[in-house]
Design brief:
Tetracycline Repressor, domain 2, 9 helices, mainly alpha
Length: 192
C-alpha cells in the first residue's frame, strides 16, 4: 500500500483512533465518517466495507512497521541487531499507541475477514527478528530453540512491554524499556 494522503488518510486515522477507543467491533462506518469529517459516500468510495477499511489499516501499519524494522536491522548483526529491532518496535509503539493496542487486541482473532492480511503483517515483522536471532545463535555457536518461536517471544514481549510502559510507566525512558527487554532475553533473569 503506497503512502496515503488526503481523504484516505483522514479515514484511516479516524478508524485507528476509534478502534483503539472502542475496539474494531464497536466501531461503525458511520462513526468513522463522522470522526474523519467526510461524507459516507467518500468513506465507501475509498473502502467498500468495514472489513476493507480495517484491512487497509493493517496494511498501512504493516508498511510503516516493516520499513522501520528493516532500517533498524540494516548493517547490524546478532545482539546489536536484536537490540535495534526492540528499540525500533518500541519507537513505533510510542509513535502509534493506537495501532499497538489494535495489534495486541486483535492479532490473535482468527475470525476476522482480514486474517490473511494480519498473518502477512505478523510474518513480515517477525522475519526481521528471526533473521537477527538466527545470526546471534550462529555467532554464539549455540543451537537454540526455533528462531521463529524466539522471534515471536521477543516481538510479543516488546509489544506488551511497550504498552505497559506507555500506560503505566510513561516516565521511564525508552532506553530503560529496551534495556529491560534485552536483559530478560539475554540471560538477565538467570544472572548470566
Amino acid at each position: 500500500m503506497a503512502r496515503t494522503s488526503g481523504t484516505k488518510r483522514l479515514i484511516l486515522d479516524a478508524a485507528l483512533q476509534l478502534a483503539a477507543e472502542r475496539g474494531i467491533t464497536g466501531t461503525t462506518m458511520d462513526d468513522v465518517a463522522e470522526r474523519a469529517g467526510v461524507a459516507k459516500g467518500s468513506l465507501y468510495y475509498n473502502f467498500s466495507s468495514k472489513d476493507k477499511l480495517f484491512e487497509g489499516l493493517l496494511l498501512d501499519g504493516m508498511e510503516t512497521l516493516t520499513q522501520a524494522l528493516r532500517e533498524a536491522r540494516a548493517g547490524r548483526h546478532g545482539w546489536p541487531a536484536i537490540e535495534a529491532l526492540v528499540a525500533a518496535l518500541l519507537g513505533r509503539i510510542a509513535a502509534n499507541p493506537a495501532l499497538a493496542k489494535i495489534m495486541a487486541g486483535d492479532i490473535f482473532r482468527t475470525d476476522r475477514p482480514w486474517q490473511e492480511t494480519a498473518y502477512a503483517f505478523r510474518h513480515q515483522a517477525l522475519a526481521e527478528f528471526e533473521a537477527a536471532i538466527t545470526e546471534a545463535q550462529a555467532a554464539a555457536s549455540v543451537a537454540g530453540p526455533a528462531s521463529g518461536l524466539m522471534a515471536s517471544s521477543v516481538f510479543g514481549a516488546t509489544l506488551v512491554a511497550g504498552l505497559e510502559w506507555l500506560v503505566f510507566e510513561p516516565e521511564r525512558s525508552q532506553e530503560e524499556v529496551v534495556g529491560a527487554i534485552i536483559a530478560t532475553f539475554s540471560g538477565g533473569l538467570r544472572g548470566a
